[in-house]
Amino acid sequence: LYAVRCVADQPNDAVLSGPIQPRLLTAARLLYLIVPHHxxxxxxxxxxxxISPERRAHTxxxxxxxxxxxxxxxxxxxxxxxxSCAAFVVPTPSRSTDxxxxxxxxxxxxxxxxxxxxxxASTDVGAPGTADLPWSELGFEFRPTKSHLRMVYRxxxxxxxxxxxxxYLNIHIGATSLxxxxxxxxxxxxxxxxxxxxxxxxxxxxxxxxxxxxxxxxMPEIPDETFVKACNDVVKDNIAYVxxxxxxxxxxxxPLLFGSGPRIGLQPSEEYTFIILVIPVGDYYKGGLAxxxxxxxxxxxxxxxxxxxGAAKVAGNYAADLIPNMEAKKKGFxxxxxxxxxxxxxxxxxxxxxxxxxxxGNKQFVTxxxxxxxxxxxxxxxxxxxxxxxxxxxxxxxDVTELSSFDEVIACGTAVVVTPIGSLTRLGANGEEPSRxxxxxxxxxxTRRLYDxxxxxxxxxxxxxxxxxxxxx
Length: 473
Hints:
22% helix; 25% strand
């Protein structure tokens, strides 16, 4: 989009130029028909410093010698009709055409004139929720966005971060991530607040966890401050894709670190690539807290071996869940619960989420202490909230038979936040009757309270007492 720009010699007017977003063009045409005396034709004027020389050549191919001049009276109507405040964002001053790489330097983010605010939700980093997406129907799936962030580690140090528009990577055929699984990743979210600002939820904790995972598979450390700044920069560049406040969605960040240098013998790579892709998302399980889901206890497969890499967020851990996950869904169970690999008598975790058991009578919040379980940042946050509310938090072994003592069971993680579990079924072997542990048919009181509290913090609706939110700026 080529923004509404201030006309150098007409400070009270603005020129709309460039390849116009279809919805914006439709709105402009509509307004032209309704109030023709407010819109008239004139030659193109712009302040040359708003467009780089290489960008100007590109722009001239798409703009005619005429542009629409729009009166200040009509701009708010046009913004509302177009439903796209992103149309008012000034393009980045410098951008390389090589591989779609975008400069990470600070840019002008919002065009305004005569004191007019383009959107009530606009901030100094731009306006969230201005991409043309069905915000109430997002689900949890890949959607293309503007860019991803990329950094490369060579010669013992990290290079500069780049914002890359192409969604493809050019990787060596001998890369250690492809042959030996030298790869780990993270997941975190950014949320729009009601004043139009955007905050990331606990990215400092993700920085610590990715480094623990990297250390386990011999990859270099990413300094915490570098990780958090990279998250900030990629969210800022994709600010239009942050779901708007009130939509229930978030911008999901997926940092990924992998060996990109060639090795055929089993040894660490000498080159590593770190990327962060972003995706606007809704609920992981359709309906979110609307209805508890039924889970299947897995006996035929194990998620992680004792003393293995279960506590690291490495890619291979999730590949092990593909078959049991698909088989469970065919049987009508959208989520799997794994037991300890050694004895199959203790609860460990769900496919992509930590396990939490709630005993309302004793005000207990119980979660496994297994060294094979990935430490969840969402679980850590919920434990703090539960303690603040007077619950006792216990991290210990949980025998399968203890499932019957819980009033509520929760699957928690960054993607799902909180998913209530309605029941857990363990299929019988050799014709035996299956065991079924029934919990709440509706969302449990404690589940909803914990969920509402953490979401209220993420959305900026209650005081952030523990300073978990970090502002994008």
